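Q: I have 698 residues here and want to know how they pack in 3D. Can you give me a structure?
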Amino acid sequence: MHMKRILTTSALALLFLGQAQAQLAKDNKCKFLGNITTSYNWQEYCDPQECSNGYVYSDYWDQVTCENATKWGSVHSGWGTFNWDNADRTYNYCKQKGIIFKYHALIWGSQHPGWIESLSVADTKKAIIEWYDEVKKHYPDLKIIDVVNEAIYTGGNYHSPYKETKIIEALGSLAEDRAQKETGVRPSYNCNTNGYPNTNSYQWLAEAFRLARERWPEATLIYNDYNTFKWQKSEFIDLVNGIKACGGPIDAAGNQAHDLNDMSGSEFKTALYDIYNKTKLPQYITEYDINKKDDSTFETRYKEQFPIMWEADFVPGVTLWGWIYGKTWVEDGGDKGASGLVRNCQKRSAFTWLESYMKTAAAKNASASVCGKNAGGPSLAVKAAEDVIALGDSVKITAEMANAKHIEFKTSGTLIVDKWVLNPCEFYFKPTQVGEYKIDATGYNDKNETVKTSLTIKVIEVGPYGGSPAVIPGKIEAENYDNGFAGKAYNDLSDGNVCDDYTDFYRKDNVDIKKISDGVAIGHCQKGEWLEYTVDVAEDGNYNVTLRVGEGNDDGKLTISAGNEIKNVTVDKTGAWGTLAEISAGTIRLYKGKQVIRLTIDQDWIDVDWISFTKDLSDVTEFANNNVITVIPNPASTKIEIIGAGKDVKVEFVSLAGSVVKTSKETEISLADVVSGVYMLRITTPSETVIKKIVVKK
């Protein structure tokens, strides 16, 4: 995977040669702030032709995206026939002004050439290759490319009309051709739908990226889509991860951000960071617009949302989709192009605010782990085998850089290691304290150019909740699972707490904890989830297992395991959801000492309050020294007399659930107020402990 990083001083100077110094992002070393061409009529001008008061695109923006001129349907009008006039107008403008030209887009279900709709799969393959080759021939130096646009599959269809063509089938067939050439065996990919994690479904998308990488090996390759923040966030994450899983050389995710007119800043931040955390790819904001003709609302949304995206270090660049009012496809209350920052050749209040914000220290110093302004330059890819580890564990860190001489790694300014080895280089990092460690990597190539990137390792102390293992015999509260993190102490399949009554009032992680009438419990337990508990077992033996659970469906299933010992449990319906009941799950063999017990959910849905373990008395053997203690029940007096126990004896009458019913320091214990049932008699002397099973009948 190619990752693009920061410029050397000399390269940076060349990039900005000829740029006006008024550009809004000129003081930020890595992030670009771009916009689109002014016109929706496909003439693709950058500077507004109707404004005579001197608005020059390159005075404000350091990157351009053509709204239409570079799309397949705009250029490719038949076999061997291409018209680049409109695209060249913008491309040449970028060359003259020294600003970034972002290519949009190679593959899209909309605005494809109409003539390809009647082609067979074989001919569509030829048309795609002809298109890629022509773009490469015309623009060999592309630095940033939207490779595929709007391919999310939801509601039985794609985000754009791919089904009007054989594009999906053709790219899937090209992927099969490639695999057959490499392995000698032709696979069969399901390329008609998207279905992560069934990676076969994403082979057509991965192939689109492989074809692009072959032609532009140093370009930043982006997948681009809309509704990524509000409506199809999960589908977007799955698709991006699906391309990665198929081996597609995707460098970044592109969030169009057309759907934010009524989204608060906090909602926007939550969505943006969630996408990044689950894809671990740089996130470009590719088509940001606020489509509001009301200036006050327009400005408010910019103030709420823009600083969040600009200051996120995983956002290398932002492209606004609105330079001149009335010149884009969006509309608000009859006003077309209401996303424009300049209306009637005057700056709107949001534009004035944006100019002020970009002069602040926060905007100037906003960091970027991937340098958008250096797309296509020296690249350094660094990854960790895990981004969250337990204290005491080591994590493998791997780095790749073309023509590398050496790569140095630091944390908080302190050198960890300087690797003078061939690619890929790797080392193991073992933190000594809990916390977050930012690993800064600097690569040096054979031209003495440098490139930097960073990653963060989170170190968490794991172990029993509260610091001490739960004692067995005894009760484990389900919500007191071990301290740790996902994959180490628990596995939870839902984001955060999933119901209205679930809040982070007890634990601060994603496990679903709910309030119940007498405390808290684990709720919404679904198949595949698990929790671990560190326990200390007093002695070897068989233990009776009792659970307090809730099940509102017909039945649920779970497993309790300790080492090689496994207990499968079926949970019948306990009543309406919220109704909990105690169920007996039989016995499990446990062995003395500290160990981990795992609770695994095997069938949806179950609420779990606690699990109790009591010694199975049928397994108790006579272990008193010389068998000197005898127990004589005395029905006449409803007392139990203990003979031969000696001095300092302690007698406890215990229920099977482990609760002490009666206790005595004498050699007899009264049963007058004990109800009928099965109990344990636990007799403790300075030298021994004896457990007897007692059946009380009245």
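Q: Anything worth noting?
A: Residues 121-138 form the longest helix (18 residues). Confidence is low (pLDDT under 50) at residues 1-21, 619-630.
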